[in-house]
Design goal:
Layout (H helix, E strand, L loop, with lengths): L1 H10 L17 E8 L2 E11 L5 E12 L2 E7 L7 E3 L4 E6 L9 E8 L4 E8 L2 E8 L11 E11 L4 E12 L5 E12 L10 E5 L5 E4 L2 E8 L2 E9 L5 E10 L2 E2 L6 E8 L7
Antiparallel strand pairs: 1-2, 2-3, 2-13, 3-4, 5-6, 6-7, 7-8, 8-9, 10-11, 10-19, 11-12, 12-13, 14-15, 15-16, 16-17, 17-18, 17-19
């Protein structure tokens, strides 16, 4: 029993602004619970670090999804004012409605490293109650679910080169919806680190409507302001996913940005780094 308790304590996430976080992907991104037939409540945590891998800011997004339509109930931008993610693994957040804007939102959950879930109280105008929030499912039985390395580019500075690369995580919610969230990383090819280059974990994409025709998948990867329509086919062994991207804005294809081919490589789930 003592060994189990010590193991659980070691897995409690340490997340505070100014602290070094290892590993961020353990808790970043979306966490959801099926709270009624066809209705999901959840939150997503975005963690942004600086070049020295210390937490620079926390962004918190709470939402409810019903019959495939997502209602965002709160988005804290930058410093996650009102959100405290303590070293004990407890996340507390409260936001009051201001005048005619926003919603009353309360979130008080603690990370359970054994069940790998956030457990506690969730309240907003669309749902109120105790929840156990889990990561969207990464079952390999449904392609293109998984973690995919999506791009790599090099920026040349006077003293060094910086390779930026990104990954897209695709999971399945308990209501069957595809849930997308992204990571971006910088690899410093030299000794000097540029402070402005940091990493980002758990950027939630709003729009992930998926269409499936035979072996071909098509879905949006972006936000409500626009994004890319991804259309492609997974390889027979599931190690790669290739096709083309078209940029959308306001629901229509952007004619000024031509169709672009892509070829993604599957990574271990939530392991974007090579």
């Amino acid at each position: 029993m003592l060994t189990a308790l010590l193991f659980a304590a070691a897995l409690q996430p340490d997340i505070e602004v100014g602290q070094t976080l290892t590993p961020p992907a353990q808790v970043a991104g979306p966490w959801e619970a099926l709270v009624a037939p066809g209705k999901v409540a959840g939150f997503s945590l975005q963690i942004i670090t600086n070049a020295n891998e210390k937490v620079r800011s926390l962004n918190l997004d709470t939402y409810v999804r019903k019959e495939g339509n997502t209602t965002r109930t709160w988005w804290s931008n930058g410093d996650a004012a009102g959100a405290l993610l303590m070293r004990t693994g407890r996340l507390q957040f409260h936001q009051r409605r201001s005048a005619n804007e926003g919603f009353d939102v309360t979130l008080d959950v603690t990370y359970d490293p054994i069940d790998m879930a956030w457990k506690g109280f969730f309240r907003d105008p669309f749902f109120s109650g105790h929840v156990a929030l889990h990561r969207p499912n990464f079952s390999d039985s449904l392609a293109p679910v998984g973690t995919w390395r999506t791009y790599s580019e090099v920026t040349i500075w006077p003293t060094q080169r910086v390779e930026e690369y990104g990954c897209l995580n695709i999971g399945v919610g308990q209501d069957g919806a595809l849930i997308l969230w992204a990571e971006s990383h910088n690899l410093f090819l030299g000794d000097a680190k540029q402070p402005i280059f940091g990493d980002s974990y758990g950027e939630l994409y709003d729009d992930s409507q998926a269409e499936h025709y035979g072996d071909e998948w098509s879905f949006m990867a972006g936000t409500q302001m626009g994004g890319d329509r991804i259309t492609g086919v997974p390889s027979s062994d599931g190690s790669s996913f290739g096709g083309y991207e078209e940029h959308y804005g306001n629901g229509t294809v952007d004619p000024s940005r031509p169709r672009r081919p892509f070829a993604w490589t599957r990574m271990l789930n939530l392991a974007c780094r090579p």
